[in-house]
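Technical annex, item 7. During the second reporting period the consortium partners agreed on a shared format for inverse folding records so that results from different sites could be compared directly. Each record opens with the tokenized structure and is followed by the designed sequence. A conforming record, contributed by the partner at site C, is shown below for reference.
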């Protein structure tokens, strides 16, 4: 490399470091601030969630996944706030603390398959993809689902398979699942999803409507197939739609 090329190269690097170009490492600082905000929320909600911190692997996934890639361009500067943000179509990308909590509640392991209902921005799927073998994710809004499928493939998340459909009936083709995550609020737990959960499996789902308190609910199917539920935390999610 000539001295001229070297100087041009160094100049380009400096420009990059000073701009907000995605991929430039300046998002790392913001991501670490987000991690510390999540930890503050974990401490604040300790009496609900019964723990002082999320699993280290879950936090590592959140340190790694570039949330700024999953928000609309006009909200780039807010990508690492510990808040939900609008993603168009009346939908939202969930609050980072809630994404961490739901992921932690599933006890993800490297050999597992997970079903997600409500792909949305793809952020939750991307977090899960770092922790399990396969993520299957269903979105009901075709345009949103297609855009997110393209994004996930551009970012190289190749263990996530997406599908456009009403998620009420799950995705029988790949069932049973080690765990299921529902990211839209519904008045009841859809029986097809319980059916597609493995024995020993876990499902996390916001139960309630727009007009009631919604509770993030933990559903566990034991090794005999007996199902128990418990309310974890009051939450606010966008509604589960479709014809159920
Ligand atoms: N997991 C998403 C959260 C998106 S908000 C993220 O990380 O960004 C919830 C999503 O659920 C919305 O995109 C909404 O369109 C979708 N949804 C609502 N009802 C659905 C249904 N019946 N089947 C599949 N997706 C549904």
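Designed sequence (site C submission):
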């Amino acid at each position: 490399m000539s001295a001229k090329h070297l100087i041009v190269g160094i100049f380009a690097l400096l420009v990059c470091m000073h701009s907000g170009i995605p991929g430039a490492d300046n998002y790392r600082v913001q991501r670490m601030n987000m991690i510390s905000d999540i930890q503050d929320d974990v401490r604040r909600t300790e009496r609900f969630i019964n723990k002082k911190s999320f699993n280290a692997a879950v936090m590592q996934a959140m340190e790694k996944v570039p949330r700024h890639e999953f928000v609309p361009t006009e909200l780039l500067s807010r990508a690492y706030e510990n808040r939900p943000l609008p993603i168009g179509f009346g939908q939202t990308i969930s609050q980072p603390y809630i994404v961490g909590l739901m992921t932690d509640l599933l006890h993800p392991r490297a050999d597992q398959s997970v079903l997600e209902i409500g792909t949305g921005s793809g952020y939750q799927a991307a977090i899960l993809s770092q922790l399990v073998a396969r993520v299957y994710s269903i979105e009901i809004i075709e345009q949103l689902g297609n855009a997110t499928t393209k994004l996930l493939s551009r970012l190289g998340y190749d263990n996530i398979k997406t599908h456009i459909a009403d998620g009420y009936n799950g995705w029988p083709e790949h069932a049973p699942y080690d765990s299921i995550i529902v990211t839209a609020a519904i008045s009841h737990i859809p029986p097809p999803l319980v059916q597609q959960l493995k024995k020993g499996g876990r499902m996390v789902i916001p139960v309630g409507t727009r007009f009631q308190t919604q509770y993030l609910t933990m559903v566990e199917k034991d090794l005999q197939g007996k199902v128990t539920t418990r309310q974890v935390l009051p939450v606010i999610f966008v509604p589960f739609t479709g014809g159920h």
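Residues 91-94, 117-118, 120-121, 123-124, 138-141, 144, 166-168, 183-184, 238, 240-242 surround S-adenosyl-L-homocysteine (CB under 6 Å). The chain has one domain: 3-235. All partners now use this format for quarterly exchanges.
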